[in-house]
Amino acid sequence: MNAASRLMPVAATTAVFLLGFLVCSLTFPNFASLRVVMNLFTDNAFLGIVAVGMTFVIISGGIDLSVGSVIGFTTVFLAIAIERWGVPPLVAFALVLVICALFGAAMGAAIEYFELPPFIVTLAGMFLARGASFLMSTESIPITADLYSHLADHALRLPGGARLTVPAMIMILVVLGGMVLLHLTRFGANVYALGGSRVSTALMGVNVTRTTIRIYMLSAGLAGLSGIVFSLYTSSGYSLSGVGVELDAIAAVVIGGTLLSGGYGFVFGTFVGVLIQGLIQTYISFDGSLSSWWAKIATGLLLFAFIGFQQATLRLARRSRRHATGGAHA
Amino acid sequence: MVPISSPHDDAPAAPPSGAPLLELTGFSKSFAGFKALDQVELTLRAGEAHALLGENGAGKSTLIKCMTGVVHRDAGRLSLDGVEIAPRSAEEAVKAGIATVYQEVNLAPNLSVAQNLFLGRQPTRFGLVREGEMRRRATAVLAEFDLDLDVAAPLERYSVAVQHIVAIARAVDQSARVLILDEPTASLDAHEVEILFAVLRKLKARGIGIVFVTHFLDQVYAICERITVLRNGRLAGSATTAELPRLDLVRMMLGRELAQATAPAERAPLAAREVAGAREAAFATFENYGKAGYVAPFDLALRPGHVVGLAGLLGSGRTETTRLIFGAAHADSGTATVDGARVALASPAEALHLGFGYCPEERKTEGIVAELTVRENIVLALQARRGVTRPLSRREQDEIAAKFIRLLDIRPPDPERPIGLLSGGNQQKALLARWLATQPRLLILDEPTRGIDVGAHAEIIALIRRLCAQGMALLVVSSELEEIVTYADEVIVLRDRAHVARLTGDDITVPGILAAIAEADPAQPPPAAAGRAA
Amino acid sequence: MSLRLPRIGTSQVVALLAILAINWVVSPQFFDIRLQDGRLFGSLIDVLNRGAPVAILSLGMVLVIAMRGIDLSVGAVMAICGAIAASLADSHSLPVVLAAALGAGLLCGLWNGFLVAVLGIQPIVATLILMVAGRGIAQLITEGRIVTFTSPELAFLGGGSVLGLPTPIVITLALLALTVLIVRGTALGLLIEATGGNARAAALAGVGTRLITLAVYAWCGLCAAIAGVVAAADILGADANNAGLWLELDAILAVVIGGTSLFGGRFSLVLAVVGALIIQAMNTGILLSGFPPETNLVVKAVVVLAVLLAQSPRLKGLGSSLFGRRA
């Protein structure tokens, strides 16, 4: 794959988003506004945050099924910590982020030390985190702390009645931070290298174990942050929140042009993938007559289109490389 | 002093002398009782390219792995510049100054050239990689090798040759003193080999010692000052390139030790032919059959009761020929005819239905299904041919397994033992049984006697003779020339992925085959070019 | 020959018996079975009855996993087929309803098999597509509502009984017998184990691996359809949102508990069903013991971890030999 074809998936994703936005704008007169875009950001902030972490995991060649459960755990933990134990919200935030990061580190360590497929380890993590939140409370617990109403009201007012809310700001910061971390640091290069060839990465002297643990730490930590944002929307903690978010996040990453087999992808693509999913929802809510299940079907179709596209480009690349190397029998 | 058989003017006349740079003595390593290395030694001087040669299973890879700490040796000393070192991992070896570049380039193909050069040691400021600085340095490092690349482009965009040079540059930039190149030229064309050699000459001039593993003899004579040959885990010999003519080298690689316990019976293929009824018509013929970049088009006829031997060095196209015939690789030229009808040979399944059988060289990865029992492994091909809906009953399976366990003396004689627990020789016998159970008309055996104990060795040779006598056609790849001459009715010699000679009758002698293998192609370019003119 | 390895499966059966014994301790009536209106009732029957959907799923999943694959879409396929059955139940005869529902499942399975065997997409990725889209399709069929039906024929499949045994149990047993017949009565089982154990060796031995892959995913889709119909028949309706939700994970878990390695190869149909029963016995046990049902997931996570750790030396050996092979 050369540089152009590397960027192609992201370009295609962006084109799909722009096209979709255009269609929406032509269909609904008041669609094309900053307000709608800002709402898109706000409504999908939690997904955007968790999808950034998932991007790292998938580029490294892994998968994290536990993120939805971690979001659920975080909201319940926050509600209980703030409301029942009287922990100041900011302290509770810090606490829950540490817990989530440790949880991710444990999963990464299990994957490395027991040489188990990430899929099954994070599946266990999914059960564990969801079960833990159920054990803490099965009821929805409202959070009444001042900080919550304060943060909910706080927003940057933009022209046209648009509001850049706190969740949207956090998501934008996470996306930017994720881009810097993935594209401009040694850690980021190691993540790509792991996805490209795990054996080679180890032979090049990269500490594969440490890198893997950090990747799952990052993913779980961002899932925790996403849970904090989620609790801001609802001002409550509920053990069933975040069910199925891992699927949405994986879908956003794939639609964003990241190869599910690892090695290729961009945080920006994931961001656009999240926006596309949000756009589909927005279209459905603007239309009014369509049902929400179309969102799932559309996402599935997009997934198929992008996976098919990736498969085709991979095959082409492989064929041309085989040709170039003379097809030596290995 | 002029090298006797080197066609290249640039072959260095005298190897560098002086204190050894890298010295290893008494290297031994056993795997589960099998001696992979036995008292091997090697001395590398600064500025010298040292060829490490040997057939598959000779111990080259094990030696390299022991040198770089990837595998822990049982015994032996390793010293660099007179100081004893004991690296315990590839990483530690690199730190000590020994770097390895493998045939399968061990870099991240999806990362940029610059990232590959500096992964793990990128220049940073405030934790951020200084991309510009890194690219500048990368460009400078590569310029030393006369390589002008877009260092920001992903590595996979470049040819394997360039990837090798990047890997070498990475190693050298990490202050490597000793560079081990494990078959770097296996997938390069002639021009690329030249580029690589130019780099190696530069490195030699800088005093870096190179261990060069290859199976292209021309390249050995073009770049190396000294040669060490391993055979069956033991040192077969070591000499300067100038002192070792090509024919002697091939003999050293393929020759059988005199002390070998099982001196093969004398040549007797004629007898076999009498039994089967001489001069039977070929039932399978291949005309101009080949695949670009894989093996050059060849003609081949297979007759009942007739053994065709494929001889040549590792990588000469022997295995490739068998894979084409069995449908595991697809020819892009020529025709295959079986019983007068043209066949496509699109898959092993089709070859199986035509009555072909194939024992691959890679027994563990392509032959056995380790966790299945001996019985299940034996009936697999027969069952595949009968199809899903016509299962062999358990009784039939038991009978077949028992029959072949008895016939081939597979030990332990327990059909319900997972085959992975058997010794190599018994695994090989079970694989033979798998194909014999299908009563094939043609049996293709790729190195049937490699890596198995002496007793099983003799039994398999005897079996080949017996099968032949019963009228089966055989196509046998073997590095054991003494063996081939005892049973082959026809020997095809391969070199550089092409069939270069065909010996029959009384021409089938060990010296004759050796001469055909060693015969240097007087014309440049080096061998890698032939057979891959795509 | 005096030293023989313990028969494969001993540990699973012992685990099941142990859990049943614990259930008996926490709830002394656990093994009480009574006959009422020609149908058996009791906690033990309950375990079998409620475990049926996962057991049925695991019969398809075990073959997929033995081929070194995975099918994430079975829960969604259950929802689709349940929705079809529930929507048609009151307007069509039972054979038509079943043909439609099972046909849809077969089609879903073939789609997955096509992506894996023909297009060469990794199983986890290929089946993810239907996992995401499938629930949407199910909702499309039910038009987002919870579709209920009254057809007694269909309801019989969920709530009826045959010779005293609840129908789901009978269906599970029949399907188990049928699967064993198909897989072990033909050469399919051997060819699947050979392909899962070493795909390259199997292909070089002339096994047509592509067709087998297709067939195995199709069978998995069919099993999911049966499970979906049974689940819908049980609640006299179809809820596209919740039918079969997360059951793919339970099915995978059942297969893994049943001793089939995620790396393919040897498999056991009976033990996969035992695995499903172990999961259900735990669920029931937690309910009976008065613990909140929420404990369930934590216990399940612990079981996953325990099974993984128990298997890990083996996995580790396998992993490193694969690693070595590649190097």
UniProtKB/TrEMBL annotation, chain A:
- Its main localization is membrane
- What Gene Ontology molecular function terms does this protein carry? transmembrane transporter activity
Q: Where does this one sit in the cell?
A: Cell membrane
Coiled-coil annotated residue ranges, if any: none
Q: Where are the transmembrane segments?
A: 49-78, 90-111, 164-185, 215-233, 292-312
State the membrane topology: Multi-pass membrane protein
Q: Which UniProt keywords apply?
A: Cell membrane, Membrane, Transmembrane, Transmembrane helix
Question: What is any one of the record's Gene Ontology cellular component terms?
Answer: plasma membrane
Q: Which InterPro entries match?
A: ABC_transp_permease
PANTHER family listed in its UniProt record: ABC TRANSPORTER PERMEASE PROTEIN YPHD-RELATED-RELATED (PTHR32196), INNER MEMBRANE ABC TRANSPORTER PERMEASE PROTEIN YJFF (PTHR32196:SF63)
Q: What is this protein called?
A: ABC transporter permease
The organism of origin for this protein: Ancylobacter defluvii
UniProtKB/TrEMBL annotation, chain B:
The record places domain ABC transporter at 22-257, 278-521
Which Pfam family is an annotated match for this chain, by its short name? ABC_tran
Tell me the domain of life.
Bacteria
Q: Does the keyword ATP-binding apply?
A: yes
Extract the PROSITE patterns matched here: ABC_TRANSPORTER_1, ABC_TRANSPORTER_2
**Alphabetic keyword roster:** ATP-binding, Nucleotide-binding, Repeat, Sugar transport, Transport
Check the UniProt entry and state the signal peptide residues, or none. none
Recorded GO terms, molecular function?
A: ATP binding; ATP hydrolysis activity
Family matches, as InterPro entries: AAA+_ATPase, ABC_carbohydrate_import_ATPase, ABC_transporter-like_ATP-bd, ABC_transporter-like_CS, P-loop_NTPase
Instruction: Report if keyword Protein biosynthesis is assigned.
Output: no
**Per the similarity annotation, which family is this?**
Belongs to the ABC transporter superfamily.
- The protein's name in its UniProt record: Sugar ABC transporter ATP-binding protein
Source organism? Ancylobacter defluvii
TrEMBL record, chain C:
Q: Which CDD domains match?
A: TM_PBP1_transp_AraH_like (cd06579)
Q: Does the keyword Lyase apply?
A: no
Query: InterPro entries from the entry?
Result: ABC_transp_permease (IPR001851)
Tell me the keywords, alphabetical order: Cell membrane, Membrane, Transmembrane, Transmembrane helix
GO MF, one term, reads: transmembrane transporter activity
GO cellular component, as recorded: plasma membrane
TM stretches of this protein: 12-31, 51-70, 77-102, 114-134, 169-191, 211-233, 245-263, 270-291
How is the protein disposed in the membrane? Multi-pass membrane protein
In which broad location class does this protein mainly occur, judging by the first location in its UniProt entry?
Answer: membrane
Note the coiled coil stretches, chain numbering: none
- Which PANTHER family does this one have? ABC TRANSPORTER PERMEASE PROTEIN YPHD-RELATED-RELATED, GALACTOFURANOSE TRANSPORTER PERMEASE PROTEIN YTFT
Q: What is this protein called?
A: Sugar ABC transporter permease
Q: Which organism is it from?
A: Ancylobacter defluvii
